[in-house]
Amino acid sequence: MAESYAQLLADTAYESPLDLAMVRHFVAELGETSGARLLDAGCGAGRMITFIDAIASFDIEGVDVSSRMVELAQRAHPARRFSIADLKDLPYENAHFDGVLAWYSIIHTPTVELASVLSELHRVLRPGGYALFGFHVGTGERIIRHAYGHDVTLQSQLYDDIAVQDALEDVGFTVAARLRRGPRATEAYPQAFLLARRPL
Fold it and tell me: Which of 114, 130, 178, 180 is in Cβ range 3.0-4.6 Å of 192 for a Cys bridge?
């Protein structure tokens, strides 16, 4: 369903102004014209890269577990580098990136694997670098039977924002900002955004 996803979520029109304010704050912390190295972790078809390219001059790489999503992202951003990999096992050296964007990526991570994913993102982030996480708020797992025009079975994990903050701190991050907002009419759950920093 990668093609349908890319067509229906072609840009950030679905995000609320508050959501994008967190992305802009994240970009500002990295330095908008710094040429910082940024990893879009769980990049999908690359829509967040398009948004960040419009407001900053970063060296952005993308990674996703779906080869078809990566193919579409590469087509949209031919000058960028992309990899196919699981977030628990990233193909990058230690401290390779100045920033990591995990925009609704951990919703595909079971709770038993969350610490492994956060540890790996911490590993590839340089000391002093920032990571931004966005996710649906709640507890437990939801099963989606129809998405983006297709009959599918998708598992999506709900996370309590305080629990995610605790998990980030457990692997060595410090949390610089936390935003939780209520659901809009088109959303079933509250949304949360956590800006974390790897200490120097």
Answer: 180
The model carries a pTM of 0.89
Q: How many helices (H) and strands (E) does the chain have?
A: 6, 9
CA atoms within 13 A on the CB side of 47: 17
- Say which CATH superfamily domain 2-197 falls into: Vaccinia Virus protein VP39 (3.40.50.150)
Tens digit of each residue's pLDDT (9 = 90 or more) over 97-106: 999 999 999 9
Q: What tokens does 94 get? A: 């230690």
Phi, psi of 81 (to 5 degrees): -100, 140
Taking the C-alpha atoms of residue 191 and residue 180, their distance in angstroms, rounded to an integer, is 6
Which residues are paired to 122 by β-bridges? none
Give the containing element (helix H, strand E) for 53.
helix 47-53
**Sign of the torsion formed by the C-alpha atoms of 140, 146, 148 and 154:** positive
Give the start-to-end residue ranges of the domains of the chain.
2-197
